[in-house]
Amino acid sequence: MQKRPLGRTGLHVSRICLGTMTFGEQNTESEAHAQLDRAVEAGVDFLDMAELYPIPPKAETQGATERFIGSWLKARGLRDRVVIATKVVGRSDSTWFRQDASKPRLDLANIREALEGSLKRLGVEAIDLYQVHWPDRPTSGFGSVPTRWKSPAADATEVPIEETLDALGQLVCEGKIRHLGLSNESAWGTMRYLAHAERTGAPRVASIQNAYNLLNRVFEPALAEVALREDVGLLAYSPLGQGYLTGKYANGARPEGSRKALFDRLQRYEKPGTAEAVDAYVALAHEFGLQPATFANAFVLAQPFVTATIIGATTMAQLEECLAAEDVVWTDEMQAAVDAVHQRVGNPAP
Questions:
Q1: Which of 94, 75, 86 is nearest to 118 (CA)?
Q2: Which residue out of 53, 130, 212, 281 is catalytically annotated?
Q3: Which of 27, 34, 49, 165 is most buried, most CB within 10 Å of its CB?
Q4: Does the annotation count 249 as an active-site position?
């Protein structure tokens, strides 16, 4: 498994990261352990999770993902062989994240409580990469981002980025966090974090975890340059467009056990023009002799601003198709074919 630098931290991580948001909902503890075992066997040493997980978020299951990974770490004794990345929720109306039933915010008290919970569930002393899951300020996100700018409503109560970074920096000084990352962040927000770190000596963010796939390349116009010039590489989530890029939902199919059948919350990838784009990319994968899931992940891995693709699976067969992207030699012909489709269909599911 090839490795890539994690920002300027000095760490190198496998370019395939195992996403775990199905652990505790679609996957049992034993299934989660089997996936972790197989991923590590294949050379994956980078695991991504969140205090929010599993998905869909709800009070009854919140934190189960980290508990499953914690039990695996204890059983296998592999803490020193893996890089653990988890996340603190941004501002939320859900009151079940915090013990006092308050609405989470990105201030020191909230971040400390979230971090202590993650450490306890995982059974570790420190988090290798602690990420802000989404901003505290009002922004569009999780598929609500239009292809043209729409100004969010003002909110005078937002926690400033500088305050959030200072809070995270205090926890780094306490030895509970090793490195910092962002998620669902904009170019402006990323540069604000970097500027505050440069001015004050606060910890520098090492990565940004945003959606990026064949149906959604909006990372490229502004954030890709930030990622390359500032060494804040992309951890690409949803490389399969929540499963749509496998082709399994073609013609309205709803496979048993799929997220669409279970939860019907994939509207981000059901926008006008998306079906046409999916069909085109699935056809390209077959033309190049690859499974669509392998092809879609290989595309992500081939982009120079990407640190890792975050794969996710509910079955071992799905996991194998994603892991197979490591062995794909991405050619200029493949990139040209993908870009030709992109020129025609654009970003139907930003």
A1: 86
A2: 53
A3: 49
A4: no
